[in-house]
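Notes from hallway chat w/ T.B., transcribed later so I don't forget. T.B. wanted the structure written out for a chain they're using in a teaching module, and asked if we could keep both sequence and structure tokens in one place. Agreed to drop them here.
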Amino acid sequence: MTYFDTIIGQDSIKSHLSELVGRNALPHSLLFYGEAGLGKLDMAIGLASLLLGRPVFSQPRGESYLADVTAARLANGESEKRIEAEGLPIYIDKGEAFWIRPMKTTLKVEQWYNLLQDHLSVAGNGNRVVIVEDFHTANAIMANAMLKTIEEPPQQVYFIIITNKINTVLPTIVSRCMGVSFHSVDADTIRAAMEVKGITGDIEQALLAGHGNPQLVERLVTQGRIEMLELAVRFMDILAFEKRWFSMISLSCESLPRESLGELMYWLRLVSRDMMALKMGAAEAQLQVPMYKAQLLRLLPRWSMQALSAVIGETLQAERALRLHIKNALVMDGLSIALHDAREED
């Protein structure tokens, strides 16, 4: 057993990080980047465990640790609604490992100042590790505060920064970190991991739709669906057939967090590309989301190639607006109007 056993694939990263720790040559600031679902958080928790010589936060993805924290907060009288809406500023494992997650939807500079003043202002007795999750949700103030710290890191403190969107990270932060790029995992490795976990079902279809993303594949096999993918297909259907398209899309998206809306943009692009491929006579095996072929065929007469191309461009613009922290409702209203107009022009 190793601290990286829960991670599917990414073997070269596991080996390289283990070697650097073994040689006492690990840089004090690391930047883990790649799409969601490739194991970045588990790799960070595993690396923190390796540096401290004991398991921290629990794996996979700190789930049991977070469940224990939630139970303790409930026991202290906090409401379920508040706990669900907002996490703690910092999650701490025995004063050696610190995990900063977005509060609601954003990493706040107050969390960083709390870490520095209350936990890192005095020297420790050994290694300490700080994991910063979803750094792409940090605003400029938070990013600049972190930059100052990693330029002159406290002694024996390691910072592991995690992001799904490397292009949103300040170039000055990128230049001061060892970048670790996470890539898609081959189908055989994912298939073998599902077998070890005892997960059965239509794994081959899930592998086609999962595009080398182990978490997506597992969700497709175990749940039979991906919520944002289903919403993307529904989004296209509403624009094609519903007279009350604006209010229906607004209601469907109004409660979604920023991260989910970003995922929705990704699936809208894949759905659009599949529809374009179907218009050009592609076989089912060539589709990105083959399980939705029947629904997409139904939509084809209502969407031209030009309108489908507009989906790709408009969702990329919407993603950029979300990263700039423009209000979710404004972004989604603008997107739905732009796509409706693009379809109506044909």
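Follow-up for T.B.: The chain has a mean pLDDT of 88. Might be a good example for the class.
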